[in-house]
Amino acid sequence: VDFMHCDAENLPFVDETFDIVISRHLLWTMPNPKSAVNEWSRVVRSGGKLMLIDGRWHDPAINMRFRRFIGRIIAFMTERRNPWIFMRYYAGIKDQLPFFNGSAPDDVVYMFNEVGLKNIAVNHLEHLSECEKRNASLSYKIANRPSLFLARGEK
After folding, report:
1. Who contacts 147 (Cβ-Cβ below 8 Å, separation ≥6)?
2. pLDDT in tens, 83-134
């Protein structure tokens, strides 16, 4: 395995370099997620696969905003960590990230279709979500209700 540091929206590889491209929890960091998906599709060989694991992290509903607030207080008191650091760090740029709160399967399926992928399928990873829920801290259980999924498309 060769590890490289590069721009996921502008990869330094020629077309059709890889058999598979996998992205895990990266889409929310992209200023232009469609460009990233297009780029990932570009470097996949014909017949290759693009697999994307993602989810909806922050439900904007008022009850979930309240639960996140309570979860942060519990994390501060019981885990001795400052959960507001994350919020301060991203406050200035979160509006530039379309999927800052996470993505939904329909968002990814739409982008996969837009870049010409076929045989698109979504797995909602219920078992993984349940496992994460069982092993998460109390603050995380209160503050989050993530909906994880795996989207797969073929070039």
Report:
1. 55, 56, 102, 104, 124, 129
2. 788 778 888 898 999 999 889 999 999 999 999 999 999 999 988 777 777 8
**Nearest-5° Cα angle at 86, 28 to 88:** 110
Cross-strand bridge partners of residue 53: 24, 150
If you average pLDDT over residues 78-85, what whole number do you get? Answer: 82
Residue bearing the bigger pLDDT, 142 or 52 = 52
Exposed (0-12), middle (13-18) or buried (19+): which is 67, by Cβ within 10 Å?
middle
- Give CA–CA dist 64/104, Å, rounded: 17
- Supply the DSSP symbol for 102: B
Dihedral angle computed from the Cα positions of residues 18, 126, 106 and 102, in that order, rounded to the nearest 10 degrees: -80
**CB 149 within 8 Å of CB 52:** no
Structure tokens at 38: 């297009």
H or E stretch at 107: helix 105-114
What average pLDDT is seen over the chain? 90
Q: What pLDDT is attached to residue 35?
A: 95
Q: What is the DSSP letter of 151?
A: E
Alpha-carbon distance of 17 to 45, in angstroms, equals 6
